[in-house]
Design a protein that fits this description.
124 residues; alpha+beta; 5-stranded antiparallel sheet; 32% helix
């Protein structure tokens, strides 16, 4: 799971706009799910992706990091992770957290949700 960069993305807003355009074109147009308005952090986008139409999994969390590449080009890019990848980001906004349904299959998603709960309770 790497980062995607583009030389035409000059700002974080360029990345977010391109990403949302692509997600809406691919995921929604192919009937894989629906993309609600993202919850925008400074360098993180959170979304509750409804995959019910394609996989019967339900509503899962999608975390998208936005960052600038190091090196001579310094292009902006993003890294997308769903909760079943076990991202190390637990600051899920309440609007996203409260819309999630049953976790996707696999240990990573359940472990991630347990860590989010612990953080919300002030344990972690």
């Amino acid at each position: 799971m790497g980062w995607d960069y583009c030389r035409e993305w000059r700002t974080p807003e360029d990345v977010k706009n391109a990403l949302l355009h692509d997600l809406n074109n691919h995921i929604c147009a192919w009937g894989w799910g629906t993309i609600p308005d993202p919850i925008d952090g400074e360098r993180t986008l959170w979304m509750a992706l409804d995959t019910t139409g394609s996989s019967n999994v339900g509503v899962i969390a999608l975390c998208v990091l936005v960052g600038k590449a190091r090196g001579p080009h310094a292009w902006w890019g993003y890294k997308m992770m769903s909760e079943d990848m076990g991202p190390y980001y637990y600051d899920v906004p309440p609007q996203v957290w409260e819309s999630l349904t049953t976790p996707p299959p696999g240990a990573y998603a359940q472990e991630w949700r347990d860590k989010v709960i612990a953080r919300r309770r002030g344990i972690a």
